[in-house]
Structure formats: C-alpha cells, structure tokens
Amino acid sequence: MVKNLKLGDLSITGLKDISRFSIPVKKLFPDFDHSILRKNDPLPESVMSKGLIHLTIRSWLLRQSGKNILIDSCVGADKERPNHPAWHKRDGMEWLNALKQQGLKPEDIDIVLCTHLHADHVGWNTKLENGVWVPTFPNAKYVCGKIEYNYWNNTYKETDKHGAFEDSILPIVKKNQMEFVEDGWDLIKGLKVQFRPGHTIGHLCLESDRGALFCGDVLHSPLQLRHPELSSAFCSDPDLARSTREKLLMEISESGGYLIPAHFADPGWTKIKKFTTGYSEIT
Ligand SMILES: [Zn+2]
C-alpha cells in the first residue's frame, strides 16, 4: 500500500521506478570511512548493509489546487543506457502502474519539475513512439532550471555519459513544452522553486508553504543526515554540494518541516533534528 502524506490541501505520493538500487558505499561516497559510524546506533539495514548503500528511485506526485504535479521522472523505459545495465532498455511498468494506481494517466499530468538533469531524474519525461522520443505527458508543462539547462546544452556531447539530455530533454524543448526558471519562481501558488547548486550546477529544490521541502539530490541517503559533510561521487562540485546540504539541513531542522529527497527508502519523507555534529530522524 502506497503511503500518502497530506499537508493541508497538498497531497504527496511517491511513485517508485526502482524500489531498491544498491551501490558500494565507497563508490557513492568516496570520503566515507567505516570508523565514522556510530557504534551504539547502527544505520538501519534499509539504508546500508554489507557495505552497500540502498537507494530508491522515485518521483513525487503532488496534488494541489486541482493540479497534478510530478517532481522528477526517474529512469524511464526503453532508454539506451549501455553504461548502466540496470537502467538499459527497461520496461518501466512499475512506475506506470504506480501512476495508474493513483487513478491517473500520463495525459492527466499538468506540470513536471526536473530538479536536475541526471538520467535517473528525467527518464519518464519521454517515451518511445514509432522509434521517436516524444513527451510522455502530452499536456504537461515541463520545468527545469535555466542554469542547469544551459550547462548541459553546452556540454552534453562531452559530459552526458548516459545520453539522457538527448533522449529525455531535447524532445521536450523541441515540442515547446519546456519552461526555464530561476530561483524564487512559483510553480503554482504555495510551491516555490529554490536554487540549491552543488550536486549539479543548476540544481533546484521545491518548497511547499505547507511545510515540506523536496530536495532532489541535495542528499541521497540518511547516512548524510549523520554526516552532512559527505558529498556523492556524482556531485559536480562536492564542496558546494556540502555547503548547500549543510545549510538546507539546518533550515529544515529549524522549520520543523518535512525533508523529502528523491532517493530515501519508504516512505521517503522524514523530519529531522540536530544531533551532535549532524542530524537524526524524528520517528
Ligand atoms: Zn543526481
């Protein structure tokens, strides 16, 4: 049963594309050292076991003011990802079924926000139709950061090792369905875009005035609550990613709102409080 978080008139539901995706901890967090783990307070097995960090790949479905909004669109189906066999030419049915279970069809999605343009955040943006990539959500306005788009647009031939920019972003731009936004832009009333760079050069978060912060890949794992200093191997600017993460965690712990990253295990949202040098989850 999929859990739903209700904050006033905002409804939040996770749509999973890949329930569990495991990476050696040192591969994800190059600066990780086992000696930093708290002896008397082990991380749950859902977070880390046998030297592997476990992540979930999910979109967030937000329903508010009659709008159906997606934050990020996971890995997707049929994508050519030879550099990542688990993502290569998937059927993607888990994600489509998750959307269907919410009583929705792709045609019903009004807005798709791309926090950043990594391959596991934009895959369902497009689908393969007669050999051509077309928008999966024909009636949606897609939104991404202006800085993020400009960076990938200028460099993707050299920097995009999965080809996601070409098959999941450019077809949206070609159909004039992509809007480029900056810090402070209102997605709808009560949902504001925040510029939080570091993981990528133009990474965006989305803040709800109902008390939630959708923070994309500003952090990947609860391990980074305990150790906010750990940036991932996929962060384009690890030092900036670190200072962005530390600032964000401090803000959310002080506001008492929900922290909602892209890759935490179920339910995927948490509240945090300051604890020694890092943060702990409020259960
Ligand atoms: Zn990412």
Helix and strand string, N-terminal first?
Answer: EEHEEEHEHEEEHHEEEEEHHEEE
Query: What is the CATH architecture annotation?
Result: 4-Layer Sandwich
Q: CATH superfamily name?
A: Ribonuclease Z/Hydroxyacylglutathione hydrolase-like
Radius of gyration: 18 Å
Structural class: alpha+beta
Q: Which cofactor or ligand species appear? A: zinc ion
State the helical fraction: 10-25%
Alpha-carbon distance between the two ends: 20 Å
Please, how many helices?
A: 7
Content of β-strand:
25-35%
Number of structural units classed as domains: 1
Shape: globular
Residue runs with pLDDT of under 50 for 5 or more positions = none
CATH topology: Metallo-beta-lactamase, Chain A
Compute the average pLDDT. 95
